[in-house]
Amino acid sequence: MLKRPSTLQLQKQQQPVRQQWNSSFQFMLATISYAVGLGNIWRFPALAYENGGFSFLVPYLFVSFIIGFPLLYLELSLGQYARAGPAVLHGRIRPLFQGLGWGMVIMAILVCIYYNVIVAWAILYVFILITGRSHWWSSCTQDFNTPCKLFFGRKVYWLK
Protein backbone atom coordinates (compact mmCIF):
# COMPACT_ATOMS: atom_id res chain seq x y z
CA MET A 1 0.00 0.00 0.00
CA LEU A 2 1.36 3.46 -0.96
CA LYS A 3 1.65 6.10 1.72
CA ARG A 4 0.69 9.63 0.88
CA PRO A 5 3.46 12.14 1.81
CA SER A 6 2.61 14.68 4.47
CA THR A 7 2.53 18.40 3.71
CA LEU A 8 5.72 18.89 5.75
CA GLN A 9 7.57 16.37 3.56
CA LEU A 10 6.26 18.10 0.41
CA GLN A 11 7.45 21.48 1.70
CA LYS A 12 10.92 20.09 2.41
CA GLN A 13 11.12 18.66 -1.10
CA GLN A 14 10.10 21.95 -2.73
CA GLN A 15 12.52 24.19 -0.83
CA PRO A 16 15.60 25.22 -2.85
CA VAL A 17 19.05 24.46 -1.50
CA ARG A 18 20.41 27.53 0.28
CA GLN A 19 24.04 28.54 0.11
CA GLN A 20 26.23 28.20 3.18
CA TRP A 21 29.44 29.86 4.35
CA ASN A 22 32.66 28.24 3.17
CA SER A 23 34.39 28.83 6.50
CA SER A 24 33.72 30.33 9.90
CA PHE A 25 36.29 33.06 9.16
CA GLN A 26 34.22 34.17 6.15
CA PHE A 27 31.13 34.29 8.36
CA MET A 28 33.00 36.30 11.01
CA LEU A 29 34.18 38.89 8.46
CA ALA A 30 30.66 39.25 7.06
CA THR A 31 29.25 39.68 10.57
CA ILE A 32 31.79 42.36 11.49
CA SER A 33 31.16 44.26 8.25
CA TYR A 34 27.42 44.04 8.95
CA ALA A 35 27.80 45.42 12.48
CA VAL A 36 30.44 48.11 11.78
CA GLY A 37 29.26 50.67 9.27
CA LEU A 38 30.52 53.98 7.96
CA GLY A 39 28.83 55.83 10.81
CA ASN A 40 30.89 53.94 13.36
CA ILE A 41 34.13 54.89 11.64
CA TRP A 42 33.24 58.50 10.81
CA ARG A 43 31.18 59.61 13.76
CA PHE A 44 32.26 57.56 16.78
CA PRO A 45 35.59 59.32 17.60
CA ALA A 46 33.92 62.74 17.54
CA LEU A 47 30.95 61.45 19.53
CA ALA A 48 33.24 59.98 22.18
CA TYR A 49 35.25 63.21 22.38
CA GLU A 50 32.17 65.44 22.67
CA ASN A 51 30.63 63.33 25.44
CA GLY A 52 33.58 63.04 27.76
CA GLY A 53 36.09 60.68 26.16
CA PHE A 54 36.79 57.69 28.40
CA SER A 55 33.85 58.45 30.71
CA PHE A 56 31.61 58.00 27.65
CA LEU A 57 33.27 54.71 26.70
CA VAL A 58 32.49 52.99 30.00
CA PRO A 59 28.64 53.17 29.72
CA TYR A 60 28.85 52.69 25.96
CA LEU A 61 30.76 49.41 26.29
CA PHE A 62 28.56 48.34 29.22
CA VAL A 63 25.36 48.81 27.22
CA SER A 64 26.96 47.21 24.16
CA PHE A 65 27.86 44.05 26.10
CA ILE A 66 24.58 43.88 28.05
CA ILE A 67 22.10 44.78 25.28
CA GLY A 68 23.77 45.19 21.87
CA PHE A 69 25.79 42.00 21.49
CA PRO A 70 23.10 39.66 22.89
CA LEU A 71 20.52 41.13 20.48
CA LEU A 72 22.98 40.79 17.60
CA TYR A 73 23.65 37.17 18.61
CA LEU A 74 19.90 36.51 18.88
CA GLU A 75 19.29 37.88 15.39
CA LEU A 76 22.17 35.88 13.91
CA SER A 77 21.23 32.65 15.66
CA LEU A 78 17.56 32.92 14.66
CA GLY A 79 18.55 33.56 11.05
CA GLN A 80 21.02 30.65 11.06
CA TYR A 81 18.52 28.29 12.69
CA ALA A 82 15.60 29.18 10.41
CA ARG A 83 17.75 29.58 7.28
CA ALA A 84 15.44 32.36 6.19
CA GLY A 85 15.35 36.11 5.77
CA PRO A 86 13.84 38.49 8.31
CA ALA A 87 10.35 38.66 6.79
CA VAL A 88 9.95 34.89 6.64
CA LEU A 89 11.64 34.33 10.00
CA HIS A 90 9.45 36.75 11.94
CA GLY A 91 6.38 35.46 10.09
CA ARG A 92 7.23 31.94 11.31
CA ILE A 93 7.63 33.11 14.91
CA ARG A 94 4.27 34.87 14.83
CA PRO A 95 2.40 35.92 11.68
CA LEU A 96 1.79 39.35 13.19
CA PHE A 97 5.57 39.95 13.30
CA GLN A 98 6.00 39.55 9.53
CA GLY A 99 5.58 43.31 9.21
CA LEU A 100 8.56 43.75 11.53
CA GLY A 101 10.64 41.59 9.18
CA TRP A 102 9.57 43.57 6.14
CA GLY A 103 10.36 46.78 8.01
CA MET A 104 13.88 45.46 8.60
CA VAL A 105 14.24 44.68 4.90
CA ILE A 106 12.99 48.14 3.86
CA MET A 107 15.36 49.85 6.32
CA ALA A 108 18.28 47.83 4.96
CA ILE A 109 17.39 48.91 1.42
CA LEU A 110 17.19 52.58 2.46
CA VAL A 111 20.55 52.41 4.24
CA CYS A 112 22.10 50.80 1.15
CA ILE A 113 20.77 53.60 -1.05
CA TYR A 114 22.06 56.19 1.43
CA TYR A 115 25.55 54.66 1.54
CA ASN A 116 25.66 54.34 -2.25
CA VAL A 117 24.87 58.06 -2.63
CA ILE A 118 27.68 58.95 -0.21
CA VAL A 119 30.15 56.71 -2.04
CA ALA A 120 29.02 58.08 -5.43
CA TRP A 121 29.69 61.66 -4.30
CA ALA A 122 33.11 60.67 -2.98
CA ILE A 123 33.99 58.94 -6.26
CA LEU A 124 32.75 61.98 -8.23
CA TYR A 125 34.93 64.39 -6.25
CA VAL A 126 37.97 62.12 -6.50
CA PHE A 127 37.43 61.85 -10.27
CA ILE A 128 37.15 65.64 -10.60
CA LEU A 129 40.32 66.12 -8.56
CA ILE A 130 42.27 63.55 -10.59
CA THR A 131 41.18 64.98 -13.94
CA GLY A 132 42.22 68.50 -12.88
CA ARG A 133 38.77 70.13 -13.01
CA SER A 134 38.63 71.19 -9.36
CA HIS A 135 38.81 74.84 -10.41
CA TRP A 136 35.10 74.61 -11.34
CA TRP A 137 33.97 74.81 -7.73
CA SER A 138 36.87 76.98 -6.52
CA SER A 139 36.10 79.94 -8.82
CA CYS A 140 33.12 82.29 -8.68
CA THR A 141 32.59 82.72 -12.39
CA GLN A 142 30.06 79.97 -12.96
CA ASP A 143 26.57 80.30 -14.39
CA PHE A 144 24.97 79.49 -11.05
CA ASN A 145 26.72 82.45 -9.34
CA THR A 146 25.53 86.06 -9.43
CA PRO A 147 27.65 89.14 -8.75
CA CYS A 148 26.55 90.70 -5.51
CA LYS A 149 28.76 93.68 -4.66
CA LEU A 150 32.27 95.00 -4.71
CA PHE A 151 34.25 93.88 -1.67
CA PHE A 152 37.66 95.56 -1.35
CA GLY A 153 37.70 96.22 -5.08
CA ARG A 154 36.72 92.64 -6.05
CA LYS A 155 33.38 91.31 -7.19
CA VAL A 156 31.90 88.88 -4.68
CA TYR A 157 29.66 86.18 -6.14
CA TRP A 158 26.84 84.52 -4.30
CA LEU A 159 24.77 81.46 -5.17
CA LYS A 160 21.39 82.20 -6.72
From TrEMBL:
Q: Which GO terms describe its cellular component?
A: neuron projection; plasma membrane
Give residues annotated as binding Na(+).
A35, V36, N40
Q: What is this protein called?
A: Uncharacterized protein
Its membrane topology, per UniProt?
Multi-pass membrane protein
> What organism, scientifically named, is this protein from?
Panagrolaimus davidi
Name the keywords, alphabetized: Membrane, Metal-binding, Sodium, Symport, Transmembrane, Transmembrane helix, Transport
A Pfam family it matches = SNF
| Places the protein is found | Membrane
A single GO molecular-function term is: metal ion binding
TM regions (residue ranges): 21-42, 54-74, 100-128
